Amino acid sequence: MNTIHTLLLTAASVLYGIGAAAQQLQPGDLLFHVKESPTAITQVRGDLIEHVAIALGTDSLIEATHRGVVITSVDSLPADGHYLIGRITVPFDLQRSLNNARSLLGRPYDYLFLPNNKEIYCSELVQLSFVDSLNQLIFRPVPLSFHDATGRILDHWQQYYAARGIDVPEGQPGSHPSELAKRSVVRIIGRMR
Description:
The protein is of the alpha+beta class. The chain has a single domain (3-192), classed as endopeptidase fold (from Nostoc punctiforme) (Alpha-Beta Complex), CATH 3.90.1720. It contains 7 helices and 8 strands. The strands form 2 sheets. A 6-stranded antiparallel sheet has the order 4-3-2-1-5-8, with helices on both faces. A hairpin with a 4-residue loop joins β2 (49-55) and β3 (60-65). The longest helix has 13 residues, at 3-15. The radius of gyration is 16 Å and the shape is globular.
């Protein structure tokens, strides 16, 4: 992530009060989990956004976690790091989008981050759920990235996929929570915790 984008996300986070932002959470908002320190997931994007969930209301979310696609309470979110609230800035079909997300409830988590299978990972849930009035995806897939700023695939991901007997899916269609947060159709409106 470039320095300017980091500063903009940080400025947006500070500009809005934590309590005020929590009250602003609306159905269809995206909640981005920003970790306190880097992880294998965050290192491929150069920032600390590791997870994304979809707000169903002010107190509940639908998300893909290690438990699969589930509905959770905002109060049950992990306490490490903080959360940025992202609001979609283009017209979209809220009811159909939330129904799309709910239709994926119970699906297992996609630990391999592969397209076109029955498993779902967090940003894939967002990417597959949000549609416009013509039922077209708001978030089109982008090539997956498992490399650092130099273009080298990180050792973690080489070992991770080698242990599972498959190649790193570098360049396969997909999404990443950090990448979704930076799309022009998402505006960061606040911060929680």
